[in-house]
TrEMBL record:
UniProtKB keywords: Isomerase, Mitochondrion, Transit peptide
Organism name: Pan paniscus
Keyword S-adenosyl-L-methionine: no
Family classification: Belongs to the pseudouridine synthase RluA family.
One example of a Gene Ontology biological process annotation: rRNA pseudouridine synthesis
Organismal lineage: Eukaryota, Metazoa, Chordata, Craniata, Vertebrata
Name of the featured protein: Pseudouridylate synthase RPUSD4, mitochondrial
Function: Catalyzes uridine to pseudouridine isomerization (pseudouridylation) of different mitochondrial RNA substrates. Acts on position 1397 in 16S mitochondrial ribosomal RNA (16S mt-rRNA). This modification is required for the assembly of 16S mt-rRNA into a functional mitochondrial ribosome. As a component of a functional protein-RNA module, consisting of RCC1L, NGRN, RPUSD3, RPUSD4, TRUB2, FASTKD2 and 16S mt-rRNA, controls 16S mt-rRNA abundance and is required for intra-mitochondrial translation. Acts on position 39 in mitochondrial tRNA(Phe).
Name of the gene encoding the protein in the UniProt record: RPUSD4
Length: 405
């Protein structure tokens, strides 16, 4: 038996663009009954009662051409937007300090757009110490440790990638042992396994880890060395913008020249900071800070509200009621080579300089971890004419070279 396609009615001719909706069956198979109840799609031919679908080739070609045109228009629109963004870039300043400020702003923005693999590779270049238990990195400025609203990239995102770069593709992700604020630079400890991470975290919690920070302050702490022992509490600041800040919750207040003890807030936390001025001028100082406790923003609050010496670039705690760029004296701005309108771009000059960990595991010696200062910090020291201790003369020489550029 031979297979034949259904015949068109005499009054209906087959157009050149007609495609049968069902392929022909092999000749060895029995021919099916051609009926409208089968899997055919009825055509729209007038009076044809056809059992095939009419597909217009000119219509398909027009649709494809329209899609191509729309894609081309979209590509042109995206290229135009990219050119517009490029033209809006801030003009390059002829002032060396202004250029450095622009570089820092650009760098912090790029950190949120960089690929995790690129960030992990950059962190490997700044490894301070590595053994079978720990990896110690130099945390860059502007990089948050944890994710949150508006955070596109953070250190926790790259820990699995960093582990694979150091120990191969089968390596387990590294674990955080503590945290640093987004704007703080310096020593940061990671552990290879959870047990070691918990062990180091317990050392931090029980205050067995010696932590030393360096900060550049606006004004000079008086006296030049001491201990700030004032509890800290989080409160809502009333201003143009309602916001929350950490602030002091002192146990005493002055009343008619007499020291009067006040009731302690139940939300206040004990906060103790030891400090020492390493170098100073009339309007600024390099201060070493040793937090005994670990309260949120403790160093910034104690310096700004306790000693009236806010950290350079601390735009949050330089004023209690306002969220505004830090106001600097004319002399300080002149030394930095900046205008007040550009002060908003000054980074926080707070650096986790040193950590001393007790012996871990089978180790018999404590681990002394020291991290060099970031370039912008060294540059500011030179501009403000602040000297570093003798053991840091190499970095001081680097600052002089930067200032000469």
């Amino acid at each position: 038996m031979t297979c034949r396609a259904p015949q068109l009615p005499p009054h209906c001719s087959r157009p050149s663009h007609v495609v049968l909706a069902r392929p022909a069956l092999p000749c060895k198979m029995a021919a099916p009954r051609w009926s409208a109840s089968g899997p055919w799609i009825r055509g729209n031919g007038q009076g044809c009662g056809s059992l095939f679908t009419l597909v217009s080739k000119p219509f398909c070609s027009a649709a494809a051409a329209s899609t191509a045109i729309n894609a081309q228009r979209l590509a042109e629109k995206l290229r135009a937007q990219k050119r517009e963004q490029d033209t809006k870039k801030e003009p390059v300043s002829t002032n060396a300090v202004q250029r450095r400020v622009q570089e820092i702003v650009r760098f912090t923005r790029q950190l949120q757009r960089v690929h995790p693999n690129v960030l992990a590779k950059a962190l490997t270049r700044g490894i301070l110490h590595q053994d079978k238990n720990l990896v110690v990195i130099n945390k860059p400025y502007g990089l948050p440790v944890h994710g949150g609203p508006g955070v596109q990239l953070c250190i926790t995102d790259v820990l699995p990638i960093l582990a694979k770069m150091l120990h191969g593709h089968k390596a387990e992700p590294l674990h955080l042992c503590h945290r640093l604020d987004k704007e703080t630079t310096g020593v940061m400890v990671l552990a290879w396994d959870k047990d070691m991470a918990h062990q180091v975290q317990e050392l931090f919690r029980t205050r067995q880890v010696v932590k030393k920070y360096w900060a550049i302050t606006v004004h000079v702490p008086m006296p030049s060395a001491g201990v700030v022992d004032i509890p800290i509490v989080e409160k809502e600041a009333q201003g143009q913008q309602q916001h929350h800040k950490m602030t002091l919750s002192p146990s005493y207040r002055m009343d008619d020249g007499k020291m009067v003890k006040v009731r302690r807030s139940r939300n206040a936390q004990v906060a103790v900071t030891q400090y020492q001025v390493l170098s100073s001028t009339l309007s600024s100082a390099l201060v070493e800070l040793q937090p005994i406790t670990g309260i949120k923003h403790q160093l910034r609050v104690h310096l700004s509200f306790g000693l009236d010496c806010p950290i350079l670039g601390d735009h949050k705690y330089s004023d209690w009621n306002r969220l505004a760029p830090q106001k600097l004296s004319v002399g300080t701005l002149k030394k930095l080579g900046l205008e007040q309108s550009k002060a908003r771009y000054i980074p926080l000059h707070l650096h986790a300089r040193q950590l001393i960990l007790p012996a871990l595991g089978s180790g018999k010696e404590e681990l002394n971890l020291v991290c060099k200062l970031p370039r912008f910090f060294v540059h500011s020291l030179h501009r403000l004419r602040l000297e570093m201790p003798n053991e840091d003369q190499n970095e001081n020489n680097e600052a002089k070279c930067l200032g000469a550029q």
